[in-house]
Amino acid sequence: MIAKLKEVFAAPLPCKICSAEAALFGVVDFAKHCNEARRGRLPLLGRPVYYHRCQACGFLFTDAFDDWSEANFKADIYNDGYIEVDPDYREVRPTNSAKLVQHFFGARKAELRLLDYGGGDGLLSATLRAGGFLEA
Ligand SMILES: [Zn+2]
Question: Does a structural domain hold residue 40?
Answer without folding.
Answer: yes
